[in-house]
Amino acid sequence: MPSPIFEDAHFLDSLVALLTRDPESLRSCAALLTAKDFQPLRGMKFGYARWVVAERALRFYEKHREPAGRLLRSDVLEYARQLNLVGRRVEELKGYLDSLDGMKITAPAAVTESVGAYKRERLKAQAIQELTDLHSAGMLTDEKWYEICQKAVDTVKGTSVVSDYLIGLTARNERRKFGARHQRNPWTFIDPLDSMIKCIGPKHLGLVLAPYKRGKSLFMLWLAVAYVFQRLNVLYITLEDPLSDVEDRLDSLISNIPLTRLGEFPQTLEKRFQQWRRLVHARLKIVDGTGGGVSIPIVEKIFLEERAHGFNADAVFVDYDDEIVPIVKQKDRRFEFADIYRDYAQFLRRYALVGWTGAQAQRGTEHLKILVGDKAAEDISKLRKVSQCISLGKGDWGTNGIYLYVAASKIGPQHIGCNIVPNLDRMLIFDREATAQAALEHGV
Fold it and tell me: Which site in 77, 118, 339, 346 is 20 to 30 Å from 16, CA atoms measured?
């Protein structure tokens, strides 16, 4: 006879892993679960570490409305210190945390859909245990019998979370204090830009605006690699450039070998690629959407399919907006872009993702240093629909110099900029050494 679901260790570990790092699973399950749902029942030899980790994951989400993620380990070990746990218990917790780090979860939707059944079966098991204890002690009255059984068979209620705004100030202050201490907005690794602004984080959409062939795709590839180095999972969807071109650019970027000479140094490329792969693990997936027909619902479908196979993206890049198909065909292209950007932003908010796309600037803007909203091709209102827009204008430093300008931002300073120097041979939108040298020469 198969074990009941509440004794299925694989299911329980998968559920705890989702509660520690998957926003969608937390939104759908946190209202149903408590730490007591993971407490080992009598006769269960294992599960103490799972119980503690689940309790900390649920408590973290209750306070901050975000999964604990990389902060889980420090939170659990600090909790263990407060409980004065030592020796075997601490080692058990560390071992369990290590196992969660390496766990690849497939079909998360199937796990979360089983939470209701898990809760019901667990309640029944607890009820039987409580009835047995009361009966053995001679304390099982008819009223108690009815009360316990009624509790066990109650249908699990809905998962909507209701917040009482008037009494929630303390929790909101705690959330804001946490956010100030633990910035979740990833860096761009473009030093002059990072020193000026904070770039977008989860639930926000960013836009790269540039003239034709100025470097929109290189900028987004640079960001994708920067995110990977910060241990974020990136889903990169190319709609314009062939997959082979994107792969070659990435190979050049991470290997420091000029794009046109990749074929001359296959062994060097292999060695450097393997070093990079060991460093970042499997954190970047590229999707070839150049065949057309990719809308935002299709982007969401791709995200969910990858998530079901164990790749839970933290950031989604779509290169670029003019190739995204609107759900409803409109007479005016501006209205189509309004639908596209609204759907994209809603998708990002649903799954707490960081999102980027690119947009073409108007013709005749190649010589401009500062590109603002009215220079966006097709629809200048794009800048009002995104959380941040960074434009790539003609820089002051060299023939290929780029001026990064924060054309719009809802999360910090805007209308400021900086010069950078790229290395187009090596597919680098930002050459740190060349930029530093140019800054020195121009007295910056």
Answer: 346
